[in-house]
Write a structure and sequence with these properties.
This protein is an alpha/beta fold. It contains 11 helices and 18 strands. The chain starts with a helix and ends with a helix.
Length: about 450
């Protein structure tokens, strides 16, 4: 009887073990099948360093035909590019990746015009472009150039104290020029004083904070350009009269904008939001964290932007213009009309209470089919300068604005983020404290805890 009972138990346990083994094998097999079919990963880095950006996903998922990325390198170096290229392939079934060993297939590399190792070519249909670098910016830029297949130029107005694209100082626009270049626009300066006409190859015109008055022919050139279907980003600063670098009222330009339905207030916005103070921003920087539904900013939810030395604007639709607000300053902001003194009284009853409109986008009805004029007005120009364009979402806002002006709404998105420098910089005193803590205090704590346990058990 006992022998039969023992055998029954052994049989039952063996059956249980067999079932468990089969379940584990089935789970492992299913996991392997899913892993081979679906390449999924989770990026826990702060700036999503190992994930493709919204812009790349938008471009790749919007493909209407198959695309091939051909990577030319030595066979042993293919794994160097595989992680990035696989991410593109995982975004769409239309993406095909091909690896070519230049040493084993020199003829194919020669036909493609490839000279350097580690070069990628993007081909869609009969069009192809070489990636400028084996990075997300380089590859996505190649996709954009193939899809657009045209030269796009951003013209920056010069001659009246505007921010200059060849100036690498904190007030320059050299970083702005570099950004539009990464989005596959060419950038050049034009002087409307020398020739009061916007060149026909300008995809978009940028007026970046003139400090001197525009002459009427310059303003007439901007007016004609937009009202004939051109596109313009205008950033007139508040007419500050402090120190040596006074900013002119620029009445001619102000009157033009007013004819389009935008009134420039002669004031300076002060943001008393404590969040801005925590971010290290002074009250002269308006911090924006919420946006309207306009395409330029609709995808920027949860992204902060900052606008130093900004004025408020007021908008009203006109006979031929249609305007949309982009964003306001915070409810804790105010605007002072005292522009001739650095001393500001936050309790002055004359101050204008926030929230205050800082930027707006508008369209001009030219009366011609498919020839709509577009313009964006921002009450600050320093937000796009070298010292501030890398602040949080400012660069995305700048490029989204240019894309909207160029009717490239399909490119409006959050771009790839640069790698953050997350090194910790400490003073000699802080370094000494860390060394003392790690080498002496923590070991002493462990020794004391061990001794206490031993003493209690003794």
């Amino acid at each position: 009887m006992n022998t039969q009972l023992l055998k029954a138990r052994q049989t039952k346990y063996a059956a249980y073990a067999a079932v468990y083994i089969l379940v584990v094998i089935a789970a492992v097999a299913i996991a392997n099948v899913l892993a081979n079919r679906y390449n999924k990963s989770y990026d826990a880095t702060a700036n999503k360093r190992y994930s493709l950006s919204d812009q790349t996903a938008k471009v790749v998922k919007g493909l209407k035909q198959d695309a091939t990325i051909t990577y030319f390198d030595q066979d042993r170096r293919f794994p160097h590019a595989k992680d990035l290229l696989d991410q593109y392939a995982n975004l769409s079934t239309r993406i095909h990746v091909k690896y070519v060993d230049q040493d084993k297939n020199p003829q194919e590399a020669r036909e493609a015009g490839i000279k350097d190792y580690g070069t990628a070519i993007v081909r869609i249909g009969t069009q192809q472009e070489q990636a400028r670098s084996l990075t997300e910016e380089g590859l996505t830029g190649a996709f954009i150039r193939v899809l657009k297949n045209k030269t796009r130029t951003v013209c920056f107005v010069a001659g009246s104290g505007e921010h200059q694209i060849d100036n690498s100082d904190r007030d320059g626009y050299s970083n702005f020029k570099e950004l539009v270049g990464k989005d596959n626009y060419e950038a050049k300066s034009i002087d409307l004083l020398q020739k009061a006409e916007v060149p026909g190859d300008c995809t978009a015109l940028v007026v970046g904070g003139p400090t001197r008055d525009y002459q009427q022919p310059e303003v007439d050139a901007i007016k004609k350009y937009v009202e004939d279907g051109g596109r313009a980003l205008l950033m007139p600063d508040p007419p500050l009269k402090i120190g040596r670098s006074e900013i002119a009222d620029n009445d001619a330009l102000t009157n033009l904008l007013q004819s389009w339905g935008i009134t420039l207030d002669k004031n300076l916005i002060l943001d008393l939001n404590p969040i801005g103070q925590l971010a290290g921003l002074g009250p002269q920087v308006a911090l924006v964290t919420s946006y309207e539904a306009q395409p330029i900013v609709s995808g920027m939810k949860g992204t902060a932007t900052g606008f130093p030395l900004s004025r408020s604007i007021e908008i009203k639709n006109g006979d031929k213009t249609s305007l949309q607000k982009l964003f306001d300053s915070s409810s804790t902001s105010l605007a002072t009309s005292n522009l001739s003194s650095p001393e500001v009284d936050a309790n002055d009853p004359k101050n204008k209470k926030g929230p205050l409109t800082i930027a707006a986008a508008g369209t001009y009805n030219t009366g011609k089919q498919d020839s709509q004029g577009r313009f964006v007005v921002v009450g600050s120009s320093s937000w796009a300068a070298n010292s501030f364009i890398k602040f949080n979402g400012n660069s995305d806002l700048a490029l989204n604005t240019i894309d909207w002006l160029a009717s490239d709404e399909d490119l409006i998105s959050i771009r790839p983020k640069q790698e953050e420098d997350r090194r910790v910089t400490m003073t000699s005193a802080q370094l000494s404290w860390v060394r003392l803590t790690s080498q002496f205090l923590l070991p002493l704590v462990v020794v004391f805890a061990g001794f206490s346990v031993w003493w209690r058990r003794r």
